[in-house]
Structure formats: C-alpha cells, structure tokens
Amino acid sequence: MLTRTAAALAAFIAFVGPAYAHDFMVGTIKIDHPWSRPTPPSAPVASGYIKLKNAGTETDRLVRVTSPIAERAEIHRSLIENGVASMRPVEGGLPVEPGATVDFELEKLHIMFIAPDRQLKDGEKFPAMLVFENAGAIEVDFVVQRKAGEAATEDHSGHGDSN
Questions:
Q1: Residue 158 clears pLDDT 60, i.e. is over it
Q2: Residue 114 belongs to what domain range?
Q3: pTM for this model (two decimals)
Q4: How many domains is the chain built from?
C-alpha cells in the first residue's frame, strides 16, 4: 500500500511540475511564487514576476534584486505614455504598504534580469536575492514557466538595456 501511495505522489508531483506554488517569508513580507518566462537563445534580458504581501504595520520597500544568472537586475514598470509603451526602472525601491499585496504581473511590474548567462528553459529554477529596506535580504528561487496558452518561445529581443 505504501509503495502505491508513494508512486501516486511521485506521479502527481511530476504532473504538476513547475506550476506548484512556492512561497518565501522575510520579516513581515511574504513572497509568493517567483517565476520567469522561458527565453530564446541569446536573449539580452529575462523577466521575473512575484507577489509581495506585507503582513506588518509599517511600509517596507524592495530596494534591490541580484542574481548570479544576470549581470544585474532592475525593477521595472511598464507604462503607456501618449500612446507609446515603454519600461522605466522603479527609482528608490518599490514600496509595499502595510496589509497590501503588490502583484508584479497585475501592476505592470517585472524584474528585468539583464544579460542572463544562459537561455532560461521551461521547468528550471534559478536563484535571486531580494533585499528589503526593513525586512532584510532573502534568497528565493524563480521557476521558469510559460503562462497557460503562451507560445513555446517568448521573444524578448525588443527589450534592451535601460542605460
């Protein structure tokens, strides 16, 4: 009986794959399911998404992101100004108000991993360090995955260095 249960559990985990939720906590900040889209070969950038929830009573701020897979990482917001779409770095860190949830995808935010050292492939993970003004630093794993209905190759070739 135990062997059958273990086999069923292993099959379930293999079926679910990288879509499982993985959460992290630092101070009063909960980090929900860091993920990144797969990239084409030689992509100049990769994008990462997270949800941040502040369970505390004071505003905290995500002030820095680093990862060994990229030369640098920046927090960006996508904007439409005068009918033209653009991305801008978030200056001074990203505030997370008490009781609030900041959903990067819904709020047109992303972490731009600039000059990744390899192609990011569906199903793999990579580490990143998130640094908060009050809560401190925490290492998280980003799961590389496509969104439901997304094509097999995401083209980031139009994204360039922000400098």
A1: no
A2: 19-144
A3: 0.78
A4: 1
Cα–Cα distance for residue pair 132/138, rounded to 1 Å? 9
Domain presence at residue 4:
no
Q: Specify the CATH number for the domain of residue 109.
A: 2.60.40.1890
Per-residue pLDDT reduced to its tens digit, 35-67: 999 999 999 999 999 999 999 999 999 999 999
> Within a domain: residue 10?
no
